[in-house]
């Protein structure tokens, strides 16, 4: 009885120590990501000072997409506007899902899959850094600022930017590439690779819906999302390096390799 009591006390102490370690790991990562976000935001503000060519670039993107025979975003948007509730849902998804879902997944990974989390974190840093280069090198006005398009956020009173395109805390001329699409694809790919659930493939719906939403709301062109996916592909070595599955729990029926060899 005494030995069992001591074992329970020891286990309780270990669990408490692990809880403290998880807490400080989450705090450390939150501070790190917040710092990186501030650096990224500062870079976007620097990019916002060079917006003279943003509208010219928008015309170039539309012409290039037309040459590629990509579907016309304005036509798709005007079709969607026949269903106001659909567009309002798209506005809500654009404003409310992107950052909170990304943060929730990162938090879950940092607690339950800390080794895999480091892969995802550095992949996101790489993707975001490359995107910042794109924002600075190629300022681009989003479709909602162009003739023939509708700013659905303003129309339905759900705008996250407001009517002033030149002011505010965000750089609205940073459409290229779309981090909404890039981050959504990264989160989906990460959860598919890291988790074991048979439902994990449903994560593919997130980037698909996100890509549709940014087009319908007039916040991004097709090329914005395509370039974001290409930048994610360039960042995949950070995600796919060895150790991604090091802390993934084994299935209950799995047998350790040493026992099989014996």
UniProtKB/TrEMBL annotation:
Keyword Ribosomal protein included in the entry's annotation: no
Primary subcellular site in the record, as a coarse category: membrane
One GO CC term, this protein: membrane
Subcellular location(s) of the protein: Membrane
Every Inositolphosphotransferase Aur1/Ipt1 domain range: 60-236
Pfam families assigned: PAP2_3 (PF14378)
Domain of life: Bacteria
Keywords linked to the UniProt accession: Membrane, Transmembrane, Transmembrane helix
Membrane-crossing segments per the record: 92-110, 122-141, 173-194, 201-219, 225-244
Topological relation to the membrane, as annotated: Multi-pass membrane protein
Name by which UniProt lists this protein: PAP2 superfamily protein
Originating species: Kribbella rubisoli
């Amino acid at each position: 009885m005494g030995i069992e009591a001591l074992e329970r006390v020891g286990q309780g102490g270990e669990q408490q120590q692990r809880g403290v370690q998880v807490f400080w790991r989450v705090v450390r990562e939150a501070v790190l990501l917040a710092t990186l976000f501030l650096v990224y935001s500062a870079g976007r503000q620097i990019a916002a000072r060079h917006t003279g060519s943003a509208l010219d670039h928008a015309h170039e993107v539309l012409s290039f997409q037309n040459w590629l025979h990509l579907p016309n975003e304005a036509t798709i948007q005007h079709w969607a506007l026949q269903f106001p509730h659909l567009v309002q849902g798209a506005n809500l998804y654009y404003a409310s899902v992107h950052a909170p879902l990304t943060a929730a997944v990162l938090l879950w990974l940092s607690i339950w899959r800390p080794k895999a989390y480091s892969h995802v974190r550095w992949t996101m840093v790489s993707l975001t850094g490359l995107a910042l280069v794109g924002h600075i090198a190629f300022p681009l006005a989003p479709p909602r600022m162009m003739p023939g398009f509708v700013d659905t956020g303003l129309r339905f009173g759900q705008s996250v930017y407001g009517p002033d395109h030149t002011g505010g805390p965000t750089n609205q001329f940073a459409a290229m590439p779309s981090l909404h699409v890039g981050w959504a694809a990264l989160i989906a790919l990460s959860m598919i690779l890291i988790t074991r659930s048979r439902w994990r493939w449903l994560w593919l719906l997130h980037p698909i819906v996100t890509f549709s939403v940014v087009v319908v709301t007039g916040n991004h062109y097709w090329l914005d999302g395509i370039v974001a996916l290409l930048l994610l592909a360039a960042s995949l070595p950070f995600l796919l390096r060895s150790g991604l599955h090091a802390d993934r729990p084994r299935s209950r029926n799995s047998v350790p390799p040493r026992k099989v060899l014996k």
